[in-house]
Amino acid sequence: MKKIGIIGGAGYTAGELLRLLINHPEVSIEFVHSSSNAGEPIANVHEGLLGETDLVFSDKHTLEDIDILFLCSAHGQSKKFWEENKRPEGLKVIDLAQDFRDESEGYVYGLPELQKDRIACADSIANPGCFATALQLSLLPLAKAKLLPEDGDINVTALTGSTGAGVKPGATTHFSWRNNNISVYKAFTHQHLIEINATLKKLQPGNTATINFVPMRGDFARGIFAVTTLDCPLSEEEATALYRNYYEQAPFTVVSDRPIDLKQAVNTNKAILHVEKHGKKLLITCAIDNLLKGASGQALQNMNIMLGLDERTGLRLKPSAF
Amino acid sequence: MKKIGIIGGAGYTAGELLRLLINHPEVSIEFVHSSSNAGEPIANVHEGLLGETDLVFSDKHTLEDIDILFLCSAHGQSKKFWEENKRPEGLKVIDLAQDFRDESEGYVYGLPELQKDRIACADSIANPGCFATALQLSLLPLAKAKLLPEDGDINVTALTGSTGAGVKPGATTHFSWRNNNISVYKAFTHQHLIEINATLKKLQPGNTATINFVPMRGDFARGIFAVTTLDCPLSEEEATALYRNYYEQAPFTVVSDRPIDLKQAVNTNKAILHVEKHGKKLLITCAIDNLLKGASGQALQNMNIMLGLDERTGLRLKPSAF
Amino acid sequence: MKKIGIIGGAGYTAGELLRLLINHPEVSIEFVHSSSNAGEPIANVHEGLLGETDLVFSDKHTLEDIDILFLCSAHGQSKKFWEENKRPEGLKVIDLAQDFRDESEGYVYGLPELQKDRIACADSIANPGCFATALQLSLLPLAKAKLLPEDGDINVTALTGSTGAGVKPGATTHFSWRNNNISVYKAFTHQHLIEINATLKKLQPGNTATINFVPMRGDFARGIFAVTTLDCPLSEEEATALYRNYYEQAPFTVVSDRPIDLKQAVNTNKAILHVEKHGKKLLITCAIDNLLKGASGQALQNMNIMLGLDERTGLRLKPSAF
Amino acid sequence: MKKIGIIGGAGYTAGELLRLLINHPEVSIEFVHSSSNAGEPIANVHEGLLGETDLVFSDKHTLEDIDILFLCSAHGQSKKFWEENKRPEGLKVIDLAQDFRDESEGYVYGLPELQKDRIACADSIANPGCFATALQLSLLPLAKAKLLPEDGDINVTALTGSTGAGVKPGATTHFSWRNNNISVYKAFTHQHLIEINATLKKLQPGNTATINFVPMRGDFARGIFAVTTLDCPLSEEEATALYRNYYEQAPFTVVSDRPIDLKQAVNTNKAILHVEKHGKKLLITCAIDNLLKGASGQALQNMNIMLGLDERTGLRLKPSAF
After folding, report:
1. Which of A90, B13, B226, D320 has its CA 20 to 30 Å from the CA of residue D30?
2. Which residues contact C42 (CB under 8 A, 6 or more apart)?
3. Quick one: closest CA in D to C174, which residue?
4. What are residue D199's phi and psi, to 5 degrees?
5. Mean pLDDT of B234-255
6. Confidence band (pLDDT; 50, 70, 90) for D261?
7. d(CA D180, CA B262)
8. CB-CB under 8 Å, B169 with A169
9. Counting Cβ atoms within 10 Å, is residue B22 exposed (0-12), middle (13-18) or buried (19+)?
10. Which residues contact C202 (CB under 8 A, 6 or more apart)?
11. How far is CA C203 from CA C133, C143, C146, C148, C209, in A?
12. Cβ–Cβ below 8 Å for A278 and C187
């Protein structure tokens, strides 16, 4: 049994990680750190855990006692954590914030569909962003095949659930406003573009395609649904085959023959993809659960790979479906 | 044209009042006071008003220049307002908070279905609470007929929309939590029981019936749906006739022959009622829009009555229906 | 008072039209035809009308007795109706189906922002489709200024509410499936592209821009939210000024300085537009209510124009906001 | 490995059962019968299963080849099935319809919290209804302690999700209508009252308490939230202790110290209960997932018990939480 510690235990990604870890057969949870909730049972804070665990939030984090540390705090807090704390030798770290997604300080970018072999050997993982996961999974096979349009446009609109905005309540997550509402935010400037472009340029170095990314707030709690269009020389059959082939060894990434919908992925660690061709344009749709494949599920998948476990351990989840 | 001032202009009830007043043919809005939003166009704060008005929030309230003042601040603020401000003679006041619902200081309880004549002569109106409106409309005809069960139980469960909780975001109005969720709060202790019981005891002085009121948070933004059961000697036909008769002069309160649903009332000033008899039990269902008949619509209805206008002026609203 | 008849009275657009007409000061409703619902009160079928009207569905349509006929049946039924019925002289017709949107048989395409003068003189109006309205309003100013990209791409993704799919229940409007779900349908092939392209080519004859239109099913009942991106030589300020100028005489089409959201338009006849520039790309967002500006509201606006009334008569609607 | 067959494979309960069985370590699925979908991959019909299984619907059901049969057809179809098919000796049957909930023909009523020992020995299980599960779990400890009010009232209002109405689309499951809507149906007459009363009278034979049950359609897809009030001599502490004690051996039924919400139970097989005392009244709230503890999860729990497995096998589900 590997021993787990969690920093930033009161947020949404920590909650989802706990809902997963509790049923994972190869780990035990040593501490869940949250200074603001210290002493409180985690089931009082994290929906759905009542009756599943007696764990209590702690204001201590004894890094020496654990094998794997998950950093679930806000962006910027992970770097700060390592300024204030000494990392014991042998401790494996999975950071869910964006602090090390540039692979600085020895962190490996934890997108298994991109580099499972590097993850398997890593001590430190920078877990991808939620939009970044959906967009990269939509484009990896093309980039690998050097088929992104040189100089051209990659047009993406994607909707995210309210859990993507975090647990702290605000005007755009107020139920009265968000319910039945749709809006655009951070158009063309979303911070995940950095990690997406880094990956695509690594796979297809010459490409100067521009990703025109319009993120949208959806009126649902879980999920990302991304729509991508770009010029592509492949036929629909060729493109589908390219995607199928690329994701052959990816247990969670599924290419559908038929048009897809968001709830095919909700409450699973799956990414569901579908490819259509219309004229010159390739249309790629992608559905993930932002808290699972887009965050905590992928973090656990990375842990499994690092530990040499079957990638799906603890991640054979019943889809909520409805 | 009567001149209107609004205090507490940034909240939900003020927003709804503004959406109504803008199309009211007999009034003009002189000021909308909000110290925190002073200088900001009201359309930046109140959803749906873009292109309808150039009004700007003010940090001044010149009570001398207006005919009618709406107090839309939080509970307790209305009393405080009158401690700090002098009321000009001739100024009519409609208070949407609960500060004067006990009819203290000359305020008249503004439930037109109870006492339209008193409202017509009043200078100061205490506008009823949202749950209080739905529950009283469910029971007024029985209380008037002295048919509330002496010593018995009146069982009420009622769901409210998230706008009932106000504009300030919090844990139970976070979209991630509220979406698709149902919960109970303030069971048996909701503050609206005070005004409800006051009315019922006024109409049927001897009655000692207990209202067992279980309020629930619904996963919708607008509306209240109330389910009431109690022992009743009337047949279904007699009860329906009693309700029809009682509400004959009430232009917004409609008794339906058929089972009802919440959206029949949403975005209207109507209260929709339905009565069924099962064994000894009378079942009364009631649907209102908490921001309209449950707050700002009723406030405007009271204003119309006070000004001698047709009660429906400015309140012939298109239901949103969907 | 003009006399109105409605064919196809049981559908969503007829319901919305009735909710509007009932409060319109210059018209009376003579008949609402529905063979399947003949004899039934319309308030039993159309949500929100209880207590507002005693109208009953009829299986007769006496065209001689009316001034204006609204055709609210399914696509294809309007042509069929005129094969089976004689049109009295002087009868004005507004068709909400797509049968005459090619302006065949003397019908004028009823987009006031495009050709209010032609509508004013018309006897027969082909009311635009809902997506077609949102997309044309997003592009009209550019097309008029001959600024659509020659040979280039116009990328559009747009979400529609479930009422766009009509009253007949089916798999993709089942609440269990649709709730919290997002999906793509008719990508690149939506039938509204025909009328959109016809308009754009009329305004900017040389242009061969391709509209890459990806329609999406949203998990809300009312509204369309459209996101358009295209290459544009104008700066953000120039583009905003172009849109403001173009829509100066359009009482319902509002250009916002700030990013918009869907509910700014819901339950109103407004179209809310916003323009941003990012690099070479112009981003245009547009929000309408699919049943109002996208259907019955625009039909009524067309009627007002035809009758020489103020365009906003009967259309000063309180936004639902929440 | 036990071999499983499913009849009525295209409905919601069969879909949920399949989502569970696919990850159950001790069973294999031999056939999923659906005459209307024969030949179709089940992942095309049941949301969330893409990439999880290659199972295809069959029009054959070879009862000789299986150990356990789940009957997932509509009410009335189970009796009909046995009129038309011979039951092989040794075949265990779990019926999710209401056909044998009266324990006729040797069926045992499959509520583990009531009679786990009888279920363990049974060959035929009649799986309880969804409302029946929530209401019985709310009342079992009191009935066992003979504390239901003699001659008194048990007042219950409970909301159900749209999946409770089945996969066939209709007016009250149309998204346009159901979204943000609340309504009452089958007040005082719901068919589940039969099985509820049967259980309560078995545990507390003398009692003649009347259950005044008002079922409501909720605007969510999954879940039941039930509110029960009744006269009770116990204090809040005593009542809580009674419930805790009664459910000590029930791994899925959890008594909460704090007020509960529906989503604590969604996508789990848990029943979450909370007890409050106000004056003479005991308030019991209960949340379950109607498709899990209210149907297919409980069916699987019954199967586990029948097979002598740990009751939780295949049912340690990650809550969806949001």
Report:
1. D320
2. C9, C18, C32, C49, C53, C55, C56, C57
3. D174
4. -65, -45
5. 98
6. very high
7. 8
8. yes
9. middle
10. none
11. 15, 6, 7, 10, 13
12. yes
pLDDT of residue D151: 87
Nearest to A175 among B12, B47, B179 (CB): B179
Cβ–Cβ gap B157/D222 under 8 Å? no
Nearest C-alpha neighbor of A37 from the set A8, A74, A66, A77: A8
Spelled out in words, what is the top-level CATH class assigned to the domain C130-290?
A: alpha beta
Residues in chain D: 322
Rounded to a whole number, what is the distance in Å from the CA of C196 to chain D's nearest CA?
27
Best of D176, D178, D267 to substitute, by most chain C Cβ atoms within 10 angstroms, is D176
pLDDT of residue C96: 98
What does the pLDDT read at residue C151?
87
Count of other CB atoms within 10 angstroms of residue B205: 9
> In the prediction, which pLDDT does C91 show?
98
Buried b (16+ CB within 10 A) or exposed e, C214-238: bbbbbbbbbbbbbbbbbbbebeeee
Mean pLDDT calculated for residue range A296-321: 98
At B71, which amino acid appears?
A: L
CATH of domain C2-128+293-307: 3.40.50.720
Domain positions in chain D are 2-128+293-307, 130-290
Distance from CA of D54 to the nearest CA of C (A): 22
User: Could you give phi then psi for residue D319, rounded to 5 degrees?
Assistant: -60, 145
- Best of B160, B176, B182, B288 to disrupt the D interface (most D CBs within 10 Å) is B182
Residue D193: name the closest of D246, D280, D129 by CA.
Answer: D129
For domain B2-127+293-306, give the fold. Rossmann fold (3.40.50)
Residues A33-82 have pLDDT tens digits of: 999 999 999 999 999 999 999 999 999 999 999 999 999 999 999 999 99
Beta bridge partners of B157: B214, B227
What residue of A is the nearest CA neighbor of C278?
A188
Of D221, D252, D318, the CB nearest to A317: D318
For residue D286, what are the contacts with CB-CB under 8 A and spacing of at least 6?
D134, D135, D137, D138, D224, D225, D226, D228, D271, D272, D273, D274
pLDDT value at position B183? 98
Q: Tell me whether residue A130 is one of the annotated catalytic residues.
A: yes
How close is the nearest chain D Cα to the Cα of B187, in Å? 8
Q: What is the ipTM of this complex?
A: 0.97
* Contact between D19 and A321 using a beta-carbon 8 Å cutoff: yes
pLDDT band at D150 (very low <50, low <70, confident <90, very high): confident
* pTM (predicted TM-score): 0.98
**Set D72, D121, D130, D232: catalytic member:** D130
Q: What is the pLDDT of residue D131?
A: 98
Q: What is the mean pLDDT of residues D52-59?
A: 97
- Say if residue A25's pLDDT is above 90: yes
Which of B180, B210, B227, B282 to mutate to test binding with chain D, by most D CBs within 10 Å of its CB? Answer: B180
Q: Do domains C2-128+293-307 and C130-290 have the same CATH topology?
A: no
Of A189, A262, A279, which has the smallest distance from its Cβ to C182's Cβ?
A262
pLDDT tens digits, one per residue of C304-321: 999 999 999 999 999 999
Instruction: Calculate how close chain D gets to C158, using CA atoms only, in Å.
Output: 18
D256-268 burial: b if 16+ Cβ within 10 Å, else e? beeebbbbbbbbb
Which subunits count as partners of chain D given 3+ CB pairs below 8 Å?
A, B, C
Band (B164; pLDDT cuts 50, 70, 90)? very high
Per-residue pLDDT reduced to its tens digit, A104-154: 999 999 999 999 999 999 999 999 999 999 999 999 999 999 999 988 999
